[in-house]
Amino acid sequence: MTNIEQIELFIQDCLEGTDCFLVSFKLKPTNNYKVFIDADSGFTLEKCMKINRALRDKIDESGMYPEGDYSLEVSSPGVDVPLKQARQFRKNVGRKLEIQFVEEEKDMLEARLLAVEEDGIVVEPLGKAVKGRPQKSGEPVNILFNEIKEAVVAIEF
Q: Could you please report the per-residue DSSP string of 101-146?
């Protein structure tokens, strides 16, 4: 088992029994692990610290890095990072999204996320201009996950 596979197992162990879930993680060349986690009820600083400590303990106990020559960063993906998993979409129901489509000829869509289904989302187009292009507002629209190139939560003021 590679170090990456082992770390992934450790992460899953640390998340078991919580409402937290792994979004992604990266290993930088200097044994720097960047772990991005989210939670259904929001990823608080307390949850972050608890998972960071538990994961660090598992890595240390495993003896993977006997000299301690690794670093670990646990955080949420951030509001500007595209949504990747259905679970992330679910926790953002009611929020405004900017959606780019796989088909490049389709315009970016600004819409309110109404629901998440097994294979996609239901949104209400907002009818505002996005990147200078006017949009039509109207009836709810179903969008399959495989049609979405990128979806980002839009900050509302």
A: ESSTTSPPEEEEEEEE-SSEEEEEEB---BTTB---B-S-EEEEGG
Identify the pLDDT of residue 73.
96
Q: What is the mean pLDDT of the chain?
A: 90
Rounded to whole angstroms, the Cα distance separating 65 from 60 reads: 7
Question: For residues 73 and 132, is the Cβ–Cβ distance under 8 A?
Answer: no
- For residue 27, what is the domain's CATH number? 3.30.300.20
- Tell me the pLDDT tens digit for each residue of 18-58: 999 999 999 998 999 999 999 999 899 999 999 999 999 99
Domain count, the chain: 2
The alpha carbon of residue 127 and the mean position of all alpha carbons in its chain are separated, in whole angstroms, by: 26
Whether residue 124 sits in one domain with residue 146: yes
For residue 119, being part of any structural domain is answered with yes
Six-digit token string for 97: 């999204």
* Nearest CA among 136, 37, 27, 153 for reference residue 95: 153
80 found inside a domain? no
